[in-house]
Structures are given as structure tokens and as C-alpha cells.
Amino acid sequence: MLDHLGSSLSFPTKESACARASTLPHRAHLRAVFGPAARKGGRPSARMPPPCIPDRVVFEKLVQVLVFGCAYERIADRTCSATTLRDRRDEWIELGVMDALRESALEAYDRFVGLEVADVAVDCCITKAPCGGEKAGRSPVDRGKQGTKRSTAVDARGIPLGTITAPANQHDSPLLVVTLERAGASVGGLPEGTSVHLDRGYDSELTRERLERRGLLAEISRKGKPAPLQATKRWVVERTSSWHNAHKKLVWCTEKQARVVDFWVAFSEVIIIVRRLIREAWRRYRWEGRPSRRP
């Protein structure tokens, strides 16, 4: 019965296999898309390239990552994937987008409000870096766990002028000069006679010599003597550190590459400067759409 030529159960012969029609009509289309000719570039692919995600969507997603400190996969949705967030972040790092945005925000604040660089405060803050990385070291305040240190210079109102990141096991004093150089580059150089307010961790003759060599005045709390925070002008840098720590990506930083850590620190400074600009401008100016209550 199986050898009967007209039976549907007969074994296919060479002639019947060649004459048989295609079972799936779209197989030819799939061969055109996934076949060897398409993979080698012989024929153009029938698939359309994925649409480009607007920068605004990616920027809003990265703000959420900065504020909440969660993984990229937690923020990704159908509008933007985690891979796109990382790729666009790396692209902006290569182009220096966040550094340029920070300079623009600082320039706008200086134009409309004004930076007060006659008094500058510098201090360090240690945060967690559980994944290690290029900016991680043994934290002296967290039982030797991995941590990152931020050295920040601010003006008299707490506006961040420059921040340096380093492993948590580095001392504060060697980071002072680099931090002041970063701050000076942001404002076109610190004026001569600027008072630099520091806590007792910087109390050394070497620190005073370094500041004097640059024409800066050292206002350092003495070791062994009470120095209430409210009695000095360095409390503003403590407040700025708390503003930084409101962005949980910096408090619990899982990034390993130094350039990515610096990207998030610069991103945090942009948010802080813009928020302070809106708040101070609300008191000084009137414009269309101005909120009725102070932001």
C-alpha cells in the first residue's frame, strides 16, 4: 500500500520531491532575509533598522537611574532598552556632553545670580562601591569595604565648582590641590586672596604652604580644639554633599570604570546647579510660567 504511486502515504521519490510545492509560502522570503547571500551582503536585508530613540527620552531615563540608583534594566521599558541607555551614556562620555552641560549650567548661574568665589569650602565624602572598580578602595569608615571618595569645592552659597573622585583609602589633603585646580578651571581661575575653608583633617603646615603658594588664604580648623560647624563658613560644603547623596547612584555606585563614575558625578552637579538657579531666580526675576510658590 505504501508503494502505491497515488497514495498519500507512499515514500517520496526524486521526481515527486522536485515537483512538490512549497509547504510554507513565506519560506522564500525568509531565505532572502536570513540566507547566505543576505549575510554576506549580496542582497539587502528586508528588515528595517530599529528606530533611533530621542535624546530626551534617554536623558529622562538616565535622570531616573541617577536619582533612584537602580539598575538600567529596572528603568528600561518599551520606549528605551537598557542597552540603549548604556550605549548613549558611553557616546555622551566620548563627546564630553555632560561636562559641557555642566559648564553651561554654571555659566548661566553666574550670569543670572552670580558666583561668590571670595569664600570657597572644600571637603570629602565617602560612599559605597560594592562592585569595586578603578575608583574604589578600602573604606576607613566602613570596615574596610570598597568605597569611593568625592572631594568637592563649592562657593559661598554651596554651588559645586569642581569635584574629584578617588579611592576611599586616599587621604583628603593630597586631593585638595587637584580639587582647587578643577574649581579654578570652571570659573576661569580663583581670585587671589580667596579664603579656603577646611576642616581639621587638612590641618598641616604642608596644606598651608600649598595654599599660600597659590595666593589663597587658609581657614583651617585646628586639631584638638572645638570647631562648631555653624561657627565657620564650611557648612555649605556639607549641605552640598547631602545634595549629592540625594542621588542614590552616587551613594551606592556599582560602576567600575572611572569615566562612568565621573559622568554620574558631573550629572549630579548639573541637577544641583539647575535646581539652585531656578530657586534663586524665583526670588529675583519674573517670567511667564513662573510658579506661584518657590520651588
CATH homology group of the domain at 96-284: Ribonuclease H-like superfamily/Ribonuclease H
Oligomer: single chain
CATH architectural category of the domain at 96-284: 2-Layer Sandwich
Radius of gyration: 30 Å
Strand percentage lies at 5-15%
> What percent of the residues sit in helical stretches (DSSP H or I)?
40-55%
Record field, number of beta strands: 6
Rough outline: globular
Number of helix segments? 12
Distance between the termini: 88 Å
**CATH topology assignment of the domain at 96-284:** Nucleotidyltransferase, domain 5
CATH domain class of the domain at 96-284: Alpha Beta
Could you state the order of secondary-structure elements as H and E?
HHHHHHHEEEEHEHEHHH
Q: Mean pLDDT, rounded to whole units? A: 86
Low-confidence stretches: 1-12, 16-41
Structural class: alpha/beta
Main pleated-sheet profile? 6 strands, mixed
Q: What is the secondary structure topology, with strand pairs?
A:
Layout: H1 14-19, H2 27-34, H3 36-39, H4 55-68, H5 72-75, H6 82-95, H7 97-112, E1 119-128, E2 137-138, E3 146-154, E4 160-167, H8 172-187, E5 195-198, H9 205-213, E6 217-220, H10 235-245, H11 248-251, H12 258-284
Parallel strand pairs: 1-5, 5-6
Antiparallel strand pairs: 1-3, 2-3, 3-4
